[in-house]
Amino acid sequence: METPMGLLVVGSIALDSVETPFGRTEEALGGSAVFFAVAGSLLHPVQVVGVVGRDYPMGELQRLGQRGIDLRGVTVADGESFRWSGKYGFDLSTRDTLETRLGVFANFRPVIPEAFRDAEFVFLGNIDPELQLDVLRQVHRPKLVACDTMNYWIQGKRTALLRLLQEVDVLLVNDSEVRELSGDWHIHRAARWVLERGPKFVVVKKGEHGAVLVEPGRTFYVPAYPLDDVFDPTGAGDSFAGGFMAYLAHTGDLSSANLRRAMVYGSAMGSFAVERFSVARFEEITLADVRARVRAHKDLVHFDLDADL
Amino acid sequence: METPMGLLVVGSIALDSVETPFGRTEEALGGSAVFFAVAGSLLHPVQVVGVVGRDYPMGELQRLGQRGIDLRGVTVADGESFRWSGKYGFDLSTRDTLETRLGVFANFRPVIPEAFRDAEFVFLGNIDPELQLDVLRQVHRPKLVACDTMNYWIQGKRTALLRLLQEVDVLLVNDSEVRELSGDWHIHRAARWVLERGPKFVVVKKGEHGAVLVEPGRTFYVPAYPLDDVFDPTGAGDSFAGGFMAYLAHTGDLSSANLRRAMVYGSAMGSFAVERFSVARFEEITLADVRARVRAHKDLVHFDLDADL
């Protein structure tokens, strides 16, 4: 049997305390690498590189590891784990960060284990762009590199970020980030600004308004799957990235048609993420549920012009 | 040759003065019935019922009439025409109404000419729901009735509006309106609330975030066509309604598959409306342009699952 394509994520591993209008959770598994890996591993094995403190509930992480997540790149460091707490407004479209305690994440210097350096698919979660560049110096010849970033780095590490963009294939960010990066409020123009600086594709996540894949000369739009009850939006974007990258790694196909399918798998994973706190929903579902939601996505947007005017 | 299905719109005929970040226009053709008719007539003849003052530029209206708009239902009354002026914010997502002068529109009592009373497709633009009900008493046996409304009537004429809903097939409103009407901020739940009160379908327009068709048990989403330069959003919703209804009237088919196509034609018309001030863009284009944009819509959302996991 063929060895599956390696899929590597480097990012945060956190403990999230979240309050929404529907409830609250304390110190639940969170962080970009965790959401990415738990969502992605429904489709394809995921290799994780990150750091936790000695207080991290490694048993819970290892339980998730049994789902096809390789944790050999997770370092346990002296100190406290990264903690984030936030509170969402009544319609879940706004959130306030109550507290961010970086702990051992403040000194995170990703070291890619030898066993992961041949990964063909690499996702650089939202960390300092200099560290993202450093990861790229450690991996051999990835077939596809995607990265996320945030306003903090766009403002504070712009030069490093622009250098990073020259080396990545996909920038995967939310709408406010691509606007701030490009200085253009118009998302499609902003995405094309990015395309001129290195990436071959830009994925712009717009939360409840879906996501857009911008390629040179072609755009694909996938709506957010309409859920009756959104419970907690935390991690939706990283779960989207996990579904997107894992679908590509599993199929090994970078055609435009397949990138579109990957967007739909990403959107499906984002929709599962928000149905429960933390990664709880992913522990309830199987590939069959994912496929059913992907088909529901198709029914949501499909129309035919066979009987047209 | 078969007589085409009659398509009737009752609504406002106005003179709009609009300022956007890109320019301004003074006393240009506007109003719900005008945008509806000019967009719709690209697909199918439209019958208009409305009122103007003696100061209205009837020559301009008649020029448009040559495109398949029957103006026999337009009454010229003593007094000033309805005037609206507004100013849009830098990203066109907010607007301030600077002035509304109802003029002869304040005493508008729609009288449907005998020649229009057999219309199979009826669109009740945003006027007092008691007047919308009165229109329904004048038409014979329409095949499909759609209506629009606004927050002013939702607040001030709720009883009449709920009575109207019992007699219409399609409610076509924007997101803030369906939220206010239902008291539920969640658009899909709000739309289902409406479905329990009469209409068979609800169309929710979300501006730059597209539009949703909610049927019992099935939902269709069409994104707004991504334009590089949105010039003036005024009239986009009424142009959407014109495209939607004219497509249905032209095809005479109310199947779910055809309603979806009608949504895409509506979205295409909305996208043309915003490319110029007033109805100017519709005077530049032909059916071929509309069809090309509909095909571009398909490319924007299409994906296939033939090669799926």
* Sheet with most strands: strand arrangement of chain A: 5-4-1-8-9-10-11-12-13
Helical residues, percent of chain A: 25-40%
Strand content of chain A: 25-35%
**Rg result of chain A:** 18 Å
Q: Can you tell me the CATH topology of chain A?
A: UDP-N-acetylmuramoyl-L-alanine:D-glutamate ligase
Can you tell me the CATH superfamily of chain A?
Ribokinase
Mean pLDDT reading of chain A: 95
What is the helix/strand order of chain A? Answer: EEEHEHEEEEHEHHEHHEEEHHHH
Q: What pair of chains forms the biggest interface? A: A-B, 44 and 44 residues
Give the CA-CA distance, first to last residue of chain A: 51 Å
Describe this structure in a few short sentences.
The structure is a homodimer of 309-residue chains. Chain A has 309 residues and is of the alpha/beta class.
Index terms:
homodimer, 309 residues, alpha/beta, UDP-N-acetylmuramoyl-L-alanine:D-glutamate ligase, nine-stranded mixed β-sheet, four-stranded mixed β-sheet, 11 helices, 13 strands, 36% helix
